[in-house]
Amino acid sequence: xxxxxxxxxxxxxxxxxxxxxxxxxxxxxxxxxxxxxxxxxxxxxxxxxxxxxxxxxxxxxxxxxxxxxxxxxxxxxxxxxxxxxxxxxxxxxxxxxxxxxxxxxxxxxxxxxxxxxxxxxxxxxxxxxxxxxxxxxxxxxxxxxxxxx
Length: 149
Description:
By secondary structure, the protein is mainly α.
């Protein structure tokens, strides 16, 4: 079943249970999917593109929550985190840091990267290989750590 159909089913459930937080998060995803469909070539989105949209929305929610927390606005931070949690259920299982480190180490060996100058090459391969399974910020910090050793 496509992600869009899963979102629609979850929206119906959220409406029935009157869960406003989940409904707001799911409506945001539906809106982004519709925007992406109408702005592009008119073709259906691939599963990878749908996952990227959801990842983008989760990242936005977490960034907003972090900013609200820094400003002492927990009343605004909590709904953002709750929406991020709702959206995360539509993402593939995230890899552990140890698993990411192993993949990055393999990529470094394969590309023969030896310094921070090679970070772009390693990041490109890592982002492609770990798409949807790991956060870009986590991948970046692991690549920096391994290349600086």
